[in-house]
Specification:
- The complex is a heterotrimer of chains A (338), B (304) and C (263).
- Chain A contains 12 helices and 4 strands, in the order αααααβββααααβααα.
- Chain A has helices spanning 2-66, 73-90, 100-123, 134-137, 139-159, 183-205, 207-217, 219-224, 229-255, 262-277, 282-303, 308-322, and strands at residues 164-165, 173-176, 179-182, 257-258.
- In chain A, the strands form 2 sheets. In chain A, strands 1-4 form a two-stranded antiparallel ribbon. Chain A has a two-stranded antiparallel ribbon with strand order 2-3.
- With 304 residues, chain B is mostly helical.
- Chain B has helices at residues 3-27, 35-52, 60-79, 84-104, 122-141, 143-153, 155-160, 165-191, 201-214, 220-235, 240-257, 265-276, 282-285, 293-303; strands spanning 114-115, 193-194.
- A two-stranded antiparallel ribbon of chain B has the order 1-2.
- Chain B is globular and about 50 Å long.
- With 263 residues, chain C is α/β, with parallel strands linked by helices.
- Chain C has one domain (2-260): Rossmann fold.
- Helices cover 30% and strands 24% of the residues of chain C.
- A 6-stranded mixed beta sheet of chain C has the order 6-7-8-3-9-10, sandwiched between helices.
- In chain C, β1 (5-16) and β2 (19-30) form a beta hairpin.
- The longest helix of chain C is centred in the last third of the chain and has 16 residues, at 184-199.
- Chain C is globular, with a radius of gyration of 18 Å.
- The chains are: A mainly alpha (338), B mainly alpha (304), C alpha/beta (263).
Chain lengths: 338, 304, 263
């Protein structure tokens, strides 16, 4: 067993290294051949991918541990942006002067996290399906679709369905080798990497991380081993809410726009990224998120804006059918009856 | 009938047929989150055939059914290689690809959509809905229905009992494709207009919810689900976003209180025993279909 | 006469990873015979059943039923060839009613695609349903045919599974611990029902821990230990066999083997 694990481990490292170097070579080649236009596309693709990857990590955590495709994630993302905008607009934060945007976003993240915990109360509790039955295993998934409808439409009722401007505090762009890089973009990529590194540490080194991984292996054995499943699972939803909130805050700062529908597109792209990388793998979600971001900017550049959906979903469909494990996934995950 | 009322009846008929298209696969234990893709294929097939005049008269409708059934048949093979979450995502991705292709192809009018020349009267929609309902009831009462319900419960045992699991699954995807395609063709002809944006992920989600909230145990489920979610908002006179909030709350509550859906086999047995007067029926004394899991568990431990 | 044997197993072997779960298993069951398969837990009895019903492919060996090889057949075609089975853990379909579960057992008997669309659930008086109800009655099961299976007592569900397996009119019926969890009255009813069926031509192969049930029902016994067959002979002499005694020694005595039953 240990030997087999070693082999997988080494294989993963090799794949990661191969991917890293391929990406660097592609980047260099693209800059060399296509000049600054392509390089600029690659940078925007990576920045967009940074947001996708955070959301993809949120998806992959819930599926990896609970075999639950959490459809509330897009609405948690959206809640952060819209609540932040509403807080800013309400004038409640005027005391904080020029930092009010940051406090507003923080407020948004808090609301999304609370919403995620609310979802937990209604989905995980009914998680133990009575039969080995496809439609009953879908109960949490269906509940989460219900929450998606509730959150989105309550926000529409409260704030209207138009997209709103969120004042972007950053004006300065960095100019590096003739490329324009926005400060928010750098912030996105760096914070995405920090968060994921921190999350990896939490999962590997801490008690709660070990508990989560034990539940992922087998919930029943986990509770036999003394893991308090009912206490650990909320932590997972807490993480989900915080990850979605962070991604949405970065998105809002980057694009300066919020709308009740902002989560739908990000959510579906993040799912695509997660599957490409392999369901249940954090590294997979990172690479997959970046690939989807790059694919998106590239297909907009080369094929036009209306081709994005088709290219990404076509790619995803092929991956699911030909290599459902994705790049780093585990064979068994996500295959259970649903 | 007022235009408003007939519009509701038309949508109800279309939703019902569409829901049955998703139901037949769900009854066999396969969740199809790409219903909109199949419906779009039927709608656009009818629209193109009608515009180009390739089929005579109402031949567009059977032709659209055949085309979407064929797509359902072909897509079943790759989709059935997948399981669980992967199947949900594969069908979802399929619908997204269909909508992407429709948006990008000039034959289909791209983002502008297509005007469909031949108008279909409401009576045809009602007839189609009634026939579809009868067909699905018949199907579920047949040995075929018994076999797919067995697959839903336990594929391995169904195989050992001699059921051709793969063949049955391909068949339900084909039938599901045909029914979703029929609903699409009727939509195209009744509303005389199709646009790719209508067949979006939300539509796939809604139709699956109609089926799951209605209940997958009997053919009554989709009927109850479609009726409930089409008529209740109209009856309550709630529109716009409140409708979806109520829809969402209903879903969350249903999953918490009665996850097996509105209509279950036990409920049907209870109602029919009211008519048949069989007081000895043990179905009456049993609150709900619940297996004694502890027993099965003991067997499991024993096996190890 | 080659067809004296209903079942012929020859040199059966199966490996899971590095573990040989069965090796070189060869035996026969004569036509109309009632043979028991016993052995300590983990001896490979259920694996042997799974190999025979095609759940796993064989590594080596042949299986012949009524003179015809069936080991190349896919799992779903073996029941039509005449091999039917029940399961150690009850595997009734939770959402099907009693009668529907039993009628599922007839699936392999239908001929042609049109028969698939025979609306057996519409009319209560149809032949298929009558045959299923009849079989339930003969097995001494007085249950509401339209009730759910899930609320029924363990022993009743266990016997419904036996009836379901019988509905395919098998040549060979393999039962995996049919008496486990049954009370003494149910056990003796089951035993006499199975004897009746065997007298009308059915061949039985039964995995069972309850030795009094085995003595009552089966004239011959096989003993499996660590995937190997260590005894094949009359049930009456199994306790005196040195190899069998050794296999059970230190774990439990043969006569006591039913003591650790699941239910």
């Amino acid at each position: 067993m240990a030997a087999a694990a070693d082999v997988t481990f080494q294989r993963n490292i090799l794949i990661k290294a191969a991917f890293g170097s391929a990406a660097l070579i592609a980047l260099a080649l693209a800059v060399f051949l296509g000049g600054h236009v392509i390089a600029q596309q690659i940078i925007s693709g990576l920045m967009l991918g940074a947001i996708y990857l955070i959301v993809a990590v949120a998806f992959t955590l819930t599926i990896g541990v609970l075999n639950f495709l959490n459809f509330t994630i897009p609405s948690l993302f959206m809640l952060t942006g819209m609540i932040a905008w509403a807080l800013l607009k309400s004038g409640l934060l005027s005391f904080s002067g020029s930092w009010s945007w940051l406090i507003a976003l923080f407020g948004g993240v808090v609301v999304a996290t609370v919403a995620s915990l609310l979802v937990e109360r209604f989905t995980y509790r009914y998680f133990k399906a009575k039969h080995g039955d496809a439609t009953e295993h879908a109960i949490p998934l269906v509940s989460s679709l219900g929450f998606l409808l509730i959150f989105e439409n309550l926000v529409i009722l409260a704030f209207g369905s138009e997209s709103q401007r969120f004042p972007v505090p950053f004006k300065a762009d960095l100019h590096l080798f003739g490329l324009v890089i926005g400060i928010p973009q750098i912030v996105s990529l760096v914070s995405a990497l920090i968060v994921v590194a921190a999350l990896s540490y939490v999962l590997k080194q801490t008690k709660i991380g070990r508990a989560l991984r034990t539940i992922a292996e087998n919930p029943e054995i986990a509770s036999l081993l003394g893991v308090e499943v009912t206490q650990v699972v909320p932590v997972l939803f807490l993480l989900t809410g915080m990850l979605c909130g962070l991604a949405a805050a970065l998105f809002t700062v980057n694009y300066g726009d919020v709308s009740p529908f902002m989560g739908d597109n990000i959510g579906t792209k993040a799912i695509a990224g997660m599957v490409l990388g392999g369901i249940g793998s954090i590294w997979g979600a990172i690479i997959g998120g970046l690939i989807v971001g790059l694919t998106e900017t590239m297909s907009v550049h080369f094929l036009g804006g209306d081709s994005v959906e088709m290219v990404i979903w076509g790619l995803l469909l092929i991956v699911i059918i030909v290599a459902p494990r994705g790049l780093f996934g585990h064979a068994a995950l996500g295959k259970g009856k649903l | 009938m007022s235009g408003y009322a007939s519009g509701i009846v038309a949508i109800l008929c279309i939703n019902l047929i569409f829901a049955y298209g998703v139901y037949v696969t769900a009854a066999a234990g396969q969740l199809n989150l790409g219903g909109a893709g199949y419906q779009a294929i039927g709608a656009y097939a009818a629209a193109v055939l009608s515009t180009q005049g390739w089929t005579p008269g109402w031949g567009t409708i059977p032709a659209a059914m055949i085309i979407s059934a064929l797509v359902g048949f072909l897509i079943a093979f790759p989709v059935l290689r997948t399981r669980g979450v992967y199947m949900v995502l594969a069908t979802f991705a399929f619908a997204q690809v269909v909508s992407g292709v429709l948006l990008r192809t000039s034959l289909f009018g791209g983002a502008i959509g297509m005007v469909v020349p031949d108008y279909l009267p409401l009576s045809v929609l009602i007839l189609a809905a009634v026939l579809t309902t009868l067909f699905v009831f018949f199907l579920m009462a047949s040995r075929f229905g018994l076999a797919i319900r067995a697959i839903h419960d336990d594929e391995a045992v169904a195989t050992i009992m001699g059921v051709d699991v793969r063949g049955m699954q391909v068949t339900v995807f084909t039938i599901g494709g045909a029914l979703a395609g029929l609903s699409g063709a009727l939509y195209a002809h009744y509303f005389s207009f199709v646009e790719a944006q209508y067949f979006n992920p939300n539509l796939s989600i809604f139709v699956l919810l109609f089926v799951l909230i209605g209940g997958t145990q009997t053919a009554w489920g989709p009927l109850a689900g479609s009726l409930f979610f089409t008529l209740i908002p109209e009856a309550l006179r709630i529109g716009g976003s409140w409708r979806f909030v109520v829809f969402g709350v209903t879903i969350v509550l249903m999953m918490a209180i009665r996850p097996e859906g509105m209509i279950t086999r036990t409920l049907i047995a209870r109602i029919s025993s009211l008519f048949h007067r069989r007081p000895s029926s043990s179905a009456l004394s049993l609150p709900n279909a619940r297996p004694d899991l502890p027993d099965a568990r003991m067997g499991d431990q024993h096996a190890k | 006469m080659p067809n004296e044997d209903m079942l012929q197993i020859n040199g059966l072997a199966k490996r899971f990873g590095g573990l040989m779960v069965t090796q070189d298993v060869s035996f026969t069951v004569r036509r109309g015979g009632r043979k028991a398969l016993i052995g300590p837990n983990g001896a490979g009895k259920t694996t042997l059943f799974n190999l025979m019903s095609g759940v796993y492919p064989l590594d080596l060996g042949t299986i012949s039923l009524d003179g015809a090889r069936i080991d190349h057949l896919p799992s779903r075609k073996r029941i039509a060839a005449g091999l039917s089975r029940s399961f150690q853990n009850i595997r009734l379909m939770p959402h099907l009613s009693v009668i529907e579960n039993v009628m599922l057992g007839q699936h392999s008997q239908i001929v042609g695609p049109l028969a698939l669309f025979n609306p057996i659930g519409l009319m209560r008086g149809n032949q298929a349903r009558k045959a299923a109800e009849d079989r339930l009655k003969r097995a001494g099961l007085d249950v509401d045919p339209d009730g759910p299976v899930s609320g029924l007592p363990y022993g009743t569900r266990k016997r419904i599974e036996v009836v379901r397996a019988l509905m395919s009119n098998p040549k060979l019926l393999m039962l995996d611990e049919p008496a486990a969890g049954l009370n003494p009255k149910e056990t003796s009813e089951l035993s006499s029902f199975l004897k009746e069926e065997a007298e009308s031509g059915l061949t039985l192969l039964v995995v069972e821990h309850d030795m009094s049930f085995v003595h009552d029902l089966c004239d011959e016994t096989l003993v499996l230990n660590f995937g190997r067959l260590i005894y094949d002979g009359p049930t009456g002499e199994v306790q005196n066999d040195p190899a069998v005694r050794e296999a059970y020694l230190g774990t439990r005595r043969v006569s006591n083997a039913g003591g650790d039953r699941a239910a």
